Amino acid sequence: MVPTPSHTDTHKLPSNRCSGVEIPALALEAAVRTYSAGGQWKRAGELFDTLLTAGSPLHETTVLSVFDALATGKQGSQCSTLLAVMSTRAAAKGFGEGALSKYYNLTVRALVKEGASDAALTLLTRMAMDDDIVVQRDTFNVVAAEMLRSGRTSDAEEVMELRDFL
Q1: Are 51 and 28 in contact (CB under 8 A)?
Q2: pLDDT-wise least confident of 44-58, 97-111, 148-162
């Protein structure tokens, strides 16, 4: 579903220390995944932006690692921004929103972790109403639990009813 990057794609690093150095796209992707796995979401995001700006085709594991790192790092707003970029990019390549289901679910969780429960609830509701997007059961549970924690019992009940309906 996601195009495989070419071994010959190269990009210049946006760094004063390495300016002018050509780095293969696959090496940059490996660095993104390494930074993501190490919890260095900011560095991972910077390199990932380099790949996005260059229009490089990306491996799904690389994209998923960045979303996962942002979610773990409680960076919900950045996850939302990246989701919008990936959605535009997917649409340009003829992919529907369903292809981004994993990223939608991680974005909702990141928003909850960041404390943006209203944004998480809005996105979850939008996802649930879109037939193409697969909402993971745990995503409903995370949002409902946050609603309960913040004393919003009626919102939590609505989330659980929506989960059971779907």
Answers
A1: yes
A2: 44-58
Report the distance separating Cα 84 and Cα 114, nearest Å.
18
What pLDDT score was predicted for residue 115? 94
pLDDT at 14 over 50: no
Structural tokens at position 91: 């649409």
* Residue 154, token pair as written in the block: 């009626």
Contact between 59 and 6 under an 8 Å Cβ cutoff? The reply is no
pLDDT band at 93 (very low <50, low <70, confident <90, very high): confident
User: Cα 135 vs. chain centroid, distance in angstroms?
Assistant: 14
Write the DSSP string, the chain: -PPPPPTT-EEE---STTTT-EEEHHHHHHHHHHHHHTT-HHHHHHHHHHHHHHT----HHHHHHHHHHHHHTT-HHHHHHHHHHHHHHHHHTT--GGGGHHHHHHHHHHHHHHT-HHHHHHHHHHHHH-TTSPPPHHHHHHHHHHHHHTT-HHHHHHHHHHHHH-
Q: What are phi and psi of 22, to 5 degrees?
A: -85, 125
Supply the pLDDT for residue 25: 85
What is the 8-class DSSP label of residue 2? P
Taking the model in full, what pTM does it have? 0.81
99 token code pair: 């292809």
